[in-house]
Amino acid sequence: MSAPRTTLRRSLAAAAALPLLAVALTACGYGSEAKDDDAKKSNVSADGKKLSADTVKIGYFPNLTHATALVGIQEGLIAKELGGTTVKPSTFNAGPSEIEALNAGSIDIGFIGPSPSINGFAKSQGKNLRIISGSASGGVKLVVNPKKIKTLDDLKGKKIATPQLGNTQDVAFLNWISEKGWKVDAQSGKGDVSVVRSDNKVTPDAYKSGALDGAWVPEPTASKLVAEGGKVLLDESTLWPDNKFVITNIIVSQKFLTEHPDVVEAVLRGTVNTNKWITANPAEAKASANAALKTLSGKALPAEVLDPAWESIQITNDPLAATLQAQADHAVEAGLLEKPELNGIYDLKPLNKILKAAGQPEVADAGLGVK
């Protein structure tokens, strides 16, 4: 373990040293907390200012690593800042479909992982999106069948699932395999370890049937596997400096940011307030997130899955930009991505304005911000 961790820390240090500069499941609008219809019609926000858009379309996953969106929408904390501007949420099963929705104008703002953010930005030559905030860190684990796998070295020759070719967990696992000195063809998943791309919804059943020996997956899938008898062999956070790495950030279409900066700021005030509420009220926030999951999927998570899953996720406004650069480097090394030009992927000025006004520390873009 020491060698992979050392290598990763070195690559992160280099990145940090840069100069600082799902198919939609719901489409229901969440109204504002304005007290009269006239206020709603005039889009009066929480601070009494009229906003420039009638609606803001927000995309996210029905996943605990998207807790800011789950709780912020469930509790009305985002809508509160928007006044008469209506929130229209949509949920997605995977990052690529959310990026497609952003490109098509079906959503304006999205909660999404680092790999699809990087891919979307690179494929559009830096013209479609900006990352405007962090949302969550951690919540990814390697869970294995303890009868077949006792140590990390035992993974050789075994069948281990990741959610999707080139997704954030897939890149992380391929990088870990490479640092072990093992060989795997990134596209086919064949090699010293069999990397099986398996949708998170079916992975627990595949594991239970014996078709998989383990999985490198986000929560709550990891805790679902533990509930089926699996054992956590590695928490990915232990591979990163300070045990932090971006798992979810917030993106916005550049068009919407340019045309409606006031609405973007209002949403960010809502997410900052949501994160503050989650941190101050963890038990209530966990229940709220689970209630949102029940509404979206028809089924709440049982306590044996919800509790450990929630515990492993850190809510944060910090996009942890140096770790996004490292994840991009890992995708390049795996052969899944040509070296991307990431300058300008971040615009943290609106977030830092809000954080400063709230007396909270500002966050950095690792030299990848708009000039």
The whole-angstrom Rg is: 20 Å
Helix content: 40-55%
Proportion of beta-strand residues: 15-25%
In which order are the strands of the major sheet placed?
Answer: 2-1-3-10-4-11
Number of helices: 15
Main beta-sheet strand count, sense and barrel state = 6 strands, mixed
Order of helices and strands: HHEHHEHEHEEEHEHEHEEHHHHEHH
Count of DSSP strands:
11
How far the N terminus sits from the C terminus, by CA atoms, comes to 39 Å
Mean pLDDT: 89
What overall geometry do the principal axes of the alpha carbons give? globular
Coarse structural class: alpha/beta
Unreliably modeled segments: 1-40
Would you give an account of this structure?
The protein has 371 residues and is an alpha/beta fold. It has 15 helices and eleven strands. It is 41% helix and 16% strand. The protein has a six-stranded mixed β-sheet, with helices on both faces. The chain is globular and about 60 Å long.
